[in-house]
Amino acid sequence: MNPARGYDPEAPVQKESPPNRLASEQSPYLLQHARNPVDWYPWGEEAFSRAREEGKPIFLSIGYSACHWCHVMEEESFADLQVAKLLNNVFVCIKVDREERPDVDQVYMAAAHALTGAGGWPLTIIMTADKKPFFAASYIPKESRYGMTGLLDLIPRISKVWQTQRQELENAGDQVIQALQGAAKTPPEEGELGEKVLDEAYNTFFRVFDGENGGFGDAPKFPAPHNLIFLLRYGNRTGKEPAYTMVGKTLHAMRRGGIFDQVGHGFHRYSTDAEWFVPHFEKMLYDQALLVMAYTEAYLATGREEFARTARETIAYVLRDMTDPGGGFYSAEDADSEGEEGKFYLWTKDEILGVLGEEDGERFSRIFNVTEPGNYREQPGGERTGKNILRLRRPLASWAHEFATPEDDLAWFVEEGRQKLLAARERRVRPGKDDKILTDWNALMIAALAKAARAFDEPDYLAAAERATAFVLTKLRRQDGRLLHRYRGGEAGLAATLDDYAFMIWALIEVYEASFVPDHLKTAVDLSRDLIAHYRDCNQGGFFFVPDDADVPVRQKPVYDGAIPSGNSVAMYALFVLGRMTANLELEETAERIRRVFAGTVSQSPTACSYFLTGLEFMLGPNFEVIISGVPESEDTRAMIGAIRSNYAPDAVVIFRPSDEEEPEIVEVAGFTRDIVMMEEKATAYVCTNYACDIPTTDPDEMVHLVRSTGRPSEPIV
């Protein structure tokens, strides 16, 4: 079985590798290893008990379904009888899906950094039966080569050291765990954060901005849309045009580059080069969600139709290829198909001509940089393969001028060709799909859809967001109301993380603002109570990544952003916003505590905490509660709501009080709306900041002016 194609339950069972314990798991990544000859265990007490009973160390392997090098290590080593025999003799072997168990991954990735100064996936950890690591590595080849020790040499060496110097290894593991526990418990340097740290982050981004290609730094380049969202809001706050320029150039370059799937749409994980040309081909749900947010906000801030189109195209990909019939969203699509990375997405020129015809194919090939020798090399500096990544090196307007064709006509030609190629591509063997449904990543997609629904006045996006919200709240919630992390095959399980709670609270706020259904705010308040009860560090403030009943050796409090924003950053922002929308001072104070407790850490590396800075920018103010009272669906109400939604107002939250109900449901969750009434029998807006409201207005333009006109403080808030 080719691991890139995912677990195939119909595949014949090889005599030498009958199904192992992973065959009963739900994770597609674990199921890819279910027929390995390695005697894999899932993470759990059964494995640790056996290790203690037999006096063996643990071989812990952590990866994920869309990881190319995880597939390589599986095919090269874990499916190999010789390697498997060594692993089974020396270790108790545990396989973990990092997306299913981010709590485990987070601890042992931190341990890898402590032991080696580096990390990555696949992550290989060797540790004691009481979960204390003493060896860490990333990808390990089967045989030693190029200065890398292979498993065939490494395993006997570790076995010998374990037999002769076991106490030293256990002591080393103790030291690693103690260091991680100390880092989690050491009170960070508290303080106040003001405009200065926002300026420092902006200046750093400005220094490392790639003015030629967009993005920041050199290869490889990651989208990091939360950095772009910070810069958009900073530009809106300060009026500094370079902030918009950096965002605009980056989003434009990504949309034209190979990192964007020019045929099927949606974004690949990252670019291996500085030009956004050659991607690492997997597609992750969280990238689609965060990039939809960035492109949507960029459209509102700049009015550039290209950004709206890209957001819509990315959503179309998710709704077409990444959506479960029940309404939830799948996690990822692999980079590999038929054992080759990127094969599904690459084209020869002959294939293009075969689908589009000679004349149209030649023109399409010129526009998208398709050549006979190919523009794709399997390795940097390697030989051309005859295969091509589609990308736009020049805007369509430039090609229209060259072809003496109206730009609209050329755009139609390109779209018609794209659809023909998409239909042809659908006949290929698709990459494996990781169809597990994760609460945190679904929440990001829900928030993105709700933002896009408002910005583009698109009811279908809101409907998709509400279906996914219902899916999470019915399928991924325990009877006592606490969230779960993963759903697949009709089974929900695994304790929720901080990210699950923080992102879902954020999503519910966004869906409320798109739908004005008060139940979404009520549920957000309920989840906030659970988050505070089970995840808050009552001594120092901030939130642990795992709950108080977690089964990991260290409870960490992350604040640095990775591929997605940190849970503490999103919690700070979401709880503060929710507090403002519901006049709940406890939620605001919890958010303020997060801001203070991480002040020292954020000050040291502001650009590593860009979503924290987005939340800080909102908290520094001025921020606005816009309460609109009107008759639902009336023309004047729609005009008032449309005016605030079509303007870039990231520091405003919008609450709607229907005026045709004496005691509407919103009053139960936001009591201060009880006395909000229409003026002159017209839809009326009350623009408030710090709970003090301006004179109400029935003029949509005046409402927008009030949101934009208030000055901003220059001193830190206390």
TrEMBL record:
InterPro entries named in the record: 6-hairpin_glycosidase_sf, 6hp_glycosidase-like_sf, Ssp411, Ssp411-like_TRX, Thioredoxin-like_sf
Gene3D superfamilies, sorted: 1.50.10.10, Glutaredoxin (3.40.30.10)
Pfam families, per database record: Thioredox_DsbH (PF03190)
Region called Disordered, residue ranges: 1-22
Domain Spermatogenesis-associated protein 20-like TRX: start-end pairs: 19-181
SUPFAM superfamilies: Six-hairpin glycosidases, Thioredoxin-like
Protein name, per record: Thioredoxin domain-containing protein
Natural source organism: Methanoculleus methanifontis
